[in-house]
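Sat 14:20. Reprocessing the chain from the morning session after the first attempt stalled halfway. Input below, unchanged.
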Amino acid sequence: MSDLEKAARDAVEAADNSEMVRQIAALLAAQQLLNQQQPAQHLRQCEHQHKQGRSAGEWLGIGAAVCVGGVGIAFASIAIAIGAVSVAILALVLRSMWRDFQKNR
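Finished this time. Tokens:
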């Protein structure tokens, strides 16, 4: 292998290495740009207005409504239970009256 062939091969290899170094430098520059843009994008995403929470008066109103509703449900349950007992007693009395009526025939 002559010196001229070695020099040509070295030149081609150096050119390939130069191109690779240029590509690596371009990738690193692009990565730096992306790293700089990511925090700015995060800030832009959080610029919306947050919904404010309920005030103490609203919570007291909600609590009072729940309490009144609970008492209403309790009274309704008691009324249903009294009605059911009344119907059961009425059924027993009518059954007893029916048996007495059947015996007297």
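The longest helix spans residues 56-103.
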